[in-house]
């Protein structure tokens, strides 16, 4: 960087990066959504498509405006080129195609790369070459599309010659069409206007550069105001309405700056410099093509409106609500309409003076009309003041950006507070004592700590919509590349999960969707031959399930190829024999082996055998699990099961022998002491218990962990009915000690490899300081029950 940025400037850029990333997250799904409006490669511009097109245009404009404000010139110029192309499409001057969608998606990719660069260097200086290439592609697409839209002349038929222009200078190709005025503009007048306006803009640019270096110099601002005012008057005189409107709004911004009323952190000079380029380009268009229209004028006006305080705009509105002087004189019958039009056609000074000089009115009549006008303005001001004083119905939302590390520290401190609370409440020094006041205070403290914990955790929770929307772009690109037709369905995008979870499952989702598109879904011809619709269905679903977040990736493709997986497994020596005895679950587990792939060749989509290994590793880091259910010819369902929270849970403290465990409350259906007649043993030796005419298997935890129980008679202990993913098991324990909030602590990696410690997801610290294991109910319901 050429200069050291202040902390405030760095913070503004960081906010821009985050906000721009969110804009791109919203933009890409809308771009991909254009496919719904294309038939045979042709874009159909119906009402719904026009609305989507308008939204995409606004999003590109927002990115351009934000980037321009921070002098990210390469990003702003690229967004501007995309905006120009979109503007012609939405006006119907250009046909939309899939190639255009791909080009807009490429623009989004460039912007994301630029944001990554800016996160490190706080500018976009290093993206010049890529920006130039992409802007060239966008401009060429615009030019090519315009040429396609030009009418063609049939062979053998002479083209209609253009109208002759007498004495046209070489710099002017044709005279502009001026629909908004009756004054005849000669070539000499136009040439003089272009020369004077170009000189004025050069002086304005120099003044703006000087102003940016001397922000407090009001003399520079006053001089800029006069020059823009002259430019505006020239444009208005010749009827260039777009130029007049834009320069008038620039004049208002300078008027605000003159009064020292610009909003904080706003640098009008930079924005006005950018708009000077727009004015110069329009002058060039007048010179070459006779076209004075400004594409995206309303958006430029909105950009300038952001630099004008609300109160300033109100005063301008008040002036516009009062009748004009000419209207007042005409209404009172003082002048005729012909006299008014004649005065307006040569207006170079106040209308009242012109009418007096023409002899159409007297000075007294003009003064009375001006008094009437001032009275109307006063009435409008009173009405405006009354409207402003009306209370607003909705409270203003206020947001505060907080460093994620601070939130992590807060949650960790709350976890320590929970441990300290348990140590206090369950202190051995208090056992056997009756302290009514202490018990009430302890209950109140527990309630507050629980609420505090829930609020702190909710801060980290964000919806999965941003992540899911990014997958929309991935599916679109893979669909185009593979030639496969796919209907991508998103469900449960409002589901909230921990921000860390979002970060950890992004790569797994990418790999799983790539696998579904490459290995799962068939080509249109293959689907038709199999009796399916030529368009495949890929569903991405998020939901809350018993203390977990489930992410489902479901396709209706060909399913796992059992024979191909087994052949590859035998070839690599990871299974004994031919593997025919493997269950579907064991077969699915093979695809998670590092380097394992059934692809015939390596492509940029798949084939290296690293994707599923990444999925498993990332899920292990957040204590997540993955289930696969595949049916040949019908499709594959992959479920990512992720803990809802990785910090604090409500747990039930139990005892087996001298060992204590925690069971997550959400997995417990009920606890009971069974009667002898409810217990039975299956022919293969599995103990079962009858609960309301349903048989559930019994799991003896002391056998699983090789510990000495207080007793082995089921009727003397307690059975806890657990449920996970539709599977149930009754856990045999000696005693239930109570319920408490549990802070989850991670286990060392080697502990999970010790055979005696199975079905454990973590540990916690009890009130007496002892370490207590947290049981993994999912693992308990899946183990081979007959072996324990």
Summarize the structure in short.
The chain has 788 residues and is of the alpha+beta class.
Question: What would you say this structure looks like, in words?
Answer:
The chain has 788 residues and is of the alpha+beta class. It folds into six domains: 7-147, HPT domain (Four Helix Bundle (Hemerythrin (Met), subunit A)); 187-319, HPT domain (Four Helix Bundle (Hemerythrin (Met), subunit A), Up-down Bundle); 322-383, no CATH class; 404-427 and 436-461; 464-643, 2-Layer Sandwich (Heat Shock Protein 90), CATH 3.30.565.10; 648-787, Beta Barrel (OB fold (Dihydrolipoamide Acetyltransferase, E2P)). Helix content is 51%, strand content 15%. The protein has 25 helices and 20 strands. It has a six-stranded mixed beta sheet. The protein has a five-stranded mixed beta sheet with strand order 4-6-7-9-8. Strands 18-10-11-20-19 form a five-stranded mixed beta sheet. Strand 6 (535-545) and strand 7 form a beta hairpin. The longest helix is centred in the N-terminal third of the chain and has 27 residues, at 187-213. The radius of gyration is 37 Å and the shape is elongated. The two termini are 66 Å apart. Residues 150-183, 313-322 and 383-394 have low confidence and may be disordered.
